[in-house]
Write a structure and sequence with these properties.
single chain, mainly alpha
Length: 86
Amino acid sequence: MKNLTITVEDSVLEWARVEAARRGTSVSRMVGEFMAELQQREDAYERAYLAWRTDERSWQGGAMPPAGAAAARTIGGRRKTGQEGA
């Protein structure tokens, strides 16, 4: 474990001391936990982003039917032509 020196405003340090005491911990541990949580969030975001970038099902992924082409519909295994049941 390494030591870290940081510079903060006096009012921020006072708040941190009170908050750490309220939580039953130290300012050092509170800052370390905050940084570890931030690292985990950033890692999770990066993993999700990379998964999205490599997902072939993205909005650009599928081929679109040619413009003006009608989708063939079937009824009972037969192709509907529009003439039946008129």
